[in-house]
Amino acid sequence: MKRLRGWWLLAAVLAALPLIFPGNYYVIVVGASAGLFAILAVGLNLLMGYAGQISLGHAAFFGLGAYASAILTTRLGWHPWLALVAGLVVTGLIAYLIARPVLRLKGHYLAMATLGFGIIVHILLVQTGGLTGGPDGIGGIPPLSLFGWAIDSDERWYGVIVAALLLVVLLALNLVDSRTGRALRALHGSEVAAGLMGIDTAAAKTSVFVLAALTAGLAGSLFAHQQAFVSPDSFNFFVSIELVTMVVLGGMASTYGAILGALILTFLPELLVVFEDYEVLIFGAILMLIMIFLPQGIVGGLKDLWRAARRRPGKGSQDAA
Amino acid sequence: MLLEASGLTKSFGGVTAIADLDFGVPEGLVYAVIGPNGAGKTTLFNIISGIYRPDEGRLNFAGQDLIGRATHRIARLGMSRTFQNLQIFFNMSVLENVMVGCHARARTGLAGALLRLPRMRREEEEIRQWAGEALDFCDLGGLKDRQASELPYGALKRLEIARALAARPRLLLMDEPAAGLNDTETLEMRGLIGRIRDQGITILLVEHNMGLVMRVSDRILVLDYGSRLAEGTPAEVRANPRVVAAYLGGEVHYAVE
């Protein structure tokens, strides 16, 4: 159980918050929004933080999931859950198809290719008006329902999104601490050595890319039903950048760090609203300061401090080995 | 022969790194490849482990043709290696580094990992045990919970060996295992190479430290400009006038300390 201590703690806190602050706007509404971004960040962190492959187009998969649910339910009258599953299949398939050619690239080239993909998807959402509603988007998306309960209040959405987040976090924690997860981290550490240890690096990259895309697709479907409305602007280039920032800010290669990054980047603008015109300025300054003083991200920086503190007293004898 | 090369040729933009090279590595021996800097030793290693594809020639390992095989498929045939410039997974712990070495011995896939099925958990225990044994074998047992990035250079060299051994290879390629080590560490490395050989693992060794090469090797291949200058037992190679001539200028002495 030690392995999942953090997960149980997270589950307890997320369950307790709405009970302690009933009806609180920041917990229920902003919290649910942060939860969706946390799902996205945890998925992207598998690709970026653990496997070391950058994606500047991750919002595209978020959008694909959202639009699949929106189109299938409003235009074709599909059942929302069926549409969600179909959305995942479509998102996963598209990710699989672009993964091999794109992930052959490294560093800046991979960044450019994923950036291009994100922009193409955004343009398609805007331009194929007959299907996607163009810049105006699609409204009137029906709510999800669970065992006959319509998920139609902010409180219920909080519950659904938190449950989805906990599931995604659990799967991510399981993955990282496994043969496949070690293969991904090895890929990050040294791709040459990973290959020579018998790891099929191309297959490993493809599977983590598809997994990250599926997580984003899930978040997209939930987002579409929660908002009852989707438009291309929710999935543009800036959202992709924001997702990358969440992962880097919280601490690469840390699932809890990704959640923390999502929380900060969702809550900070809300809290900075009081500064009116200076909001963006302060926001930027905070990000810069964190990156300058905690280049490992917040969780990474704290881990380093913890290790240094634990090393100092009494444990010096091991260093001689 | 466990590993057999014939007519191996590789050039980079007009520069011939390996030229029509023939050699064979018998099973169970320590087989060293020596030669001046730029003689093509590391290129040869990179061809054998599948990083480079040769322009011409044949390469057989345990009866399997290696040409055109991806590195991970070659590794799964039972070949492992270490690197001249360390290729440690610095983002992982010492134990995890070696657990990656066990990759090809285990089989849990993505679904098993995500759901953490009982069979997967049993396999994890096995992997942990294999990795622990490899670490103990290389005298790294006490450091297994450290981050790899915290280890000193000498320990990192042994960590690469432990990781390669965790794959339980038939052939181990060692690229300059003693480079950068002090005299004591070099002596320990000599002992370690001997212990690996005693496990029945064939070793292909590239090394500049002639004292070490002459003591641990059963056979030596001398390369010069990518082709074979001499081949034989340490005594034969040492007495070969062509080898002596190639090394004139005193860059290397065969003096055994």
What do these coordinates show?
The complex is a heterodimer of chains A (321) and B (257). Chain A is mainly α and 321 residues long. Chain A has one domain. Chain A is 73% helix and 1% strand. Chain A is built from 14 helices and two strands. Chain A has helices at residues 5-20, 25-50, 59-74, 80-103, 107-127, 129-132, 154-176, 179-189, 191-196, 201-227, 237-250, 255-271, 279-293, 297-311, and strands at 145-146, 149-150. A two-stranded antiparallel ribbon of chain A has the order 1-2. In chain A, a hairpin with a 2-residue loop joins strand 1 and strand 2. In chain A, helix 2 (25-50) packs parallel to helix 7 (154-176), helix 2 (25-50) packs across helix 11 and helix 8 (179-189) crosses helix 10. Chain A starts with a helix and ends in a 10-residue tail after the last helix. With 257 residues, chain B is of the alpha/beta class. Chain B has ten helices and ten strands. Chain B has helices spanning 41-48, 71-76, 94-101, 110-115, 118-137, 153-166, 183-198, 210-216, 234-239, 241-246, and strands at residues 3-12, 15-25, 30-34, 56-61, 64-65, 79-81, 171-175, 202-206, 219-224, 227-232. The longest helix of chain B has 20 residues, at 118-137. The A-B interface holds A 171, 174-175, 178-183, 185-186, 188-190, 192-201, 207, 211, 253, 307, 318, 321 and B 49-51, 70-72, 74-76, 80-81, 83, 87-92, 96, 99-101, 103-104, 106, 108-110, 112-116, 120, 123-124, 127, 142-143, 147, 163, 167.
